[in-house]
Automatic annotation (TrEMBL):
Main location: nucleus
Pfam families given in the database record: DBR1 (PF05011), Metallophos (PF00149)
Region listing for Disordered, in residue ranges: 214-237, 370-392, 406-482
Cofactor field: Fe(2+); Mn(2+); Zn(2+)
Protein name according to UniProt: Lariat debranching enzyme C-terminal domain-containing protein
PANTHER family documented for this protein: LARIAT DEBRANCHING ENZYME (PTHR12849:SF0), RNA LARIAT DEBRANCHING ENZYME (PTHR12849)
GO biological process, alphabetically ordered: mRNA splicing, via spliceosome
Organism of this sequence: Clathrus columnatus
Amino acid sequence: MKVAVEGCCHGTLDQIYAQIGKLEKQNNYKVDLLLICGDFEALRNPSDMECMAVPQKYRTMGDFSKLLIETGRYYVGQVKAPILTIVIGGNHEASNYLWELYHGGWLAPNIYFLGFSGCIQVNGVRIAGSSGIYKSHDYHLDVFLSHDWPTSIENYGNKAELFRRKPHFKSESLSGELGSPPMLHLLKTLQPKWWFSAHMHVKFEATFNHGTQQPENFSVRQDPPVENPDEIKIDDLDDENGATTLENPDEIIIEDEINQATPNIPPKEQARRTQFLALDKCLPRRNFLEVIDIPISSNGPEGNVGSPYITFDPEWLAITRALHPFLSLQRNQKHVPRSEELQKLVDTERVWITQNLADGGSIEIGQIQEFTPTAPGPGPGRHSRQPPTYTNPQTEALMSLLHLPNKINPRSSPSSLQSAHVTPITSSKDDADPWMKVGGPSEWHSPSTSIAAPPEPSPAVDEKDDTSAPGRWSPSRAMEET
């Protein structure tokens, strides 16, 4: 399966798909899947821009849902993504829309969001998201996507070249402040075959051998630093030919997370290797896209050979059920049990998934979740203002599938769940279609009156925004809530 990997999207879908088409023509191959590593910017209308924690000068609509002067109308259906696209969130997102799909779902036809954390399968290849997840040590992944880099990953590649292109990275690396400690924890624990990231706006490759000695000059910060280690460089004018990078006066400084020490993870008996690749953002003469061959373990049902087949991951469904009682919308999170107890809960839910869901939980996602627009797209007379809260039928459908209450954005009354109803599996073994598709209405959904609203967006954020801005997509916040 040929997989295209893209760094920071920043709404440039048209250019990304055009570049893939160019590569396909030049190399005479067909790309099966596109993975986007964050800063997707799924904007539906001007109101969504009010929920992005970026300075006003960066609040452009992007290709995702522009006004009539552009052709990138993916959300409203005028343009459909030509390739199955899997995306994760970065730190520059319309948090209100992504909140509707907290557990994952279709942002637009053929564009699937993994959720604040999630795992799905494409042609049998396990692809996991980045926002902090629990997994047992024997839960092997093929691909992991994160927006930020794992801390210390620069020590496993050509860091001299990295520091030449990004001189300001050197001091952060020496102090152990470059990247995300939670991502390093996940890298050591999950040990995926491939790890793709973005965020730093530079291409970088590394090979992380699990269970080996730490590289020279390895360090991980032990105490939260006073200054922000995860500043975002909006470096559109960086010289990709190797000139020294000067400090960017227009950089966006947003603290992505509270930095904590990363505990040592014992190596597995059989050492594994993770190939790490970070890519730039979509700009001319930048390394923002790469096509990789990934072996597949299945092609889906007969008749689907050659086309991507996207299914739920049974293990992740079990994890979702096991952790759902601990999902809190309050600032003070519920206490999560220790790993041993949590593993027992996951094992119990794995049995439930096997006994109650068709195909043991390996259900085609399109049978349960179908893209349905909630907020209106851009149009004449629409102005930027704080948007209302919408209930997304895809979230309702997934919660119905798992027999769980919708904590994210429930409607005000049970009777309003009709459009997202999923029929439970029947006792008849002859039933060939035990699940109903999500039947979305053709008109826009009415705003929900539920008290379960997404985090209030920040009405105005400048370059010196701090960690308290609740409208910002935050990996650490997702980890606390998962």
